[in-house]
Amino acid sequence: MADLKPMLDEYGIIYEALKKLPDNKLKVEFLESLAELEDNSCHRTRSFPKTRLHRVSGVKQTIYRADINKVSGWRIHLQYDRGNIVLKDVIEGRRHDDTLKIIKTKKGRYS
Amino acid sequence: MNTGESGSYEALPLEEWNADMQAAVGDIRRIGLEVLKEHGAAGEKALEVSKQWKLAERQADEHEALLRLIEASRLMVEKIDGAMRSMAPDVMETAARTIEQNLADIEESFLVIRHASLDLLRWTRRAGRIEGSPLPGEYRASYARLISYAPIFKPRLEAFQHELLELSRQPGAESAAPRLLSAITRYNAVLDSARRFVQAIVDPPLELVFQETNLFLDDWQNCSVGDRSAMASRLNDCCQLLLYDKTEFDRRTEKVRPRLADGIDASMYSMAIDKGRILFSVDEDPVFEQLTVTLYRLVDEEKFADACEVVFQVLYTDFDPR
Predict the structure, then answer these.
(1) Which residues from B are below 8 Å from A109, CB to CB?
(2) Cα of B211 to nearest chain A Cα, Å
(3) Structure pTM?
């Protein structure tokens, strides 16, 4: 049995996503994204190649963003609560804005 | 122990404290040198980065600074101990003067120690990484001894502060009591910051990570090399405080509060810097175990509000108030 991270959908995000996502391809990709988020080995290695999971910057609440599909811009917002993943929102795709793209990351000290 | 009467405090265990502190400083030096030697064998890159970061020289500076720090602390604690036990105005005046004269030295030494120790540990996690090496843990543990007397000294100092406060309120009170009270309050603030720093070494917080955006890089590259170096140094000093002294970080920065949807708050800050103002966010990231500082803009003061608007429009599209 795969090592899975518990996922809670108390806000009905899966239901909402299947209603909002415009085509079957995106619905399948949504399922693939959930599968990656559930996979504990991704959390252990901190590697999320499909969803590119990352912390939303500039917001005090610890919200994470996961891609459903990189090009279309559809994504999932989620939070962690006592080791469980809590799905929070599914966000509609829009034109990508590169204005605030992260260019470089420097650990420890700025130079 | 304070029995409720002036001048009736039990003497602080100063000799024992001094001997333990000297031993701890000796251990930090010895283990620090072992870390450099053993982890230097991790590979060519380890040695190269060690030279680049001047780790050997800074270890020597760290040792000197620790000795200065302990000596300045000893001078101050001895005088405070004397004042606690005699309560004579002239002894209190001398104690206040000793604190006032030595606090700056403590703060300066503390800065050297902080940078050297954090960089050494950072090196052992990166270029000088050796899987399973016990040395970084031993180095951390030797730092823990520096704060081992806090549970003895701190409550007694607080009781003494309380007594000084009472004395200061009495009609016709001597000026020595309020002066000493003010000096000890400042001394405590510096020591609290130092203790939190040591705690951060012993039990490391999230790793600090800086992220640069497109816009920030453009702003940054418009500054001269000299300005950039000075600003990077100030930015580092300020953001390192996030790891162990949030109060001082808050003092040096200002919160920026855009209007967002209910239940959502911004983690935005601004910091005045020589050539203007920096807009940045600070975000705890427990999944990736890091504390991320994202840099958005560096602009002149008069352009700051407009620059913020542009950033907020892009950043908070998903969290706009509806």
Answers:
(1) 119, 208, 210, 232, 236
(2) 5
(3) 0.64
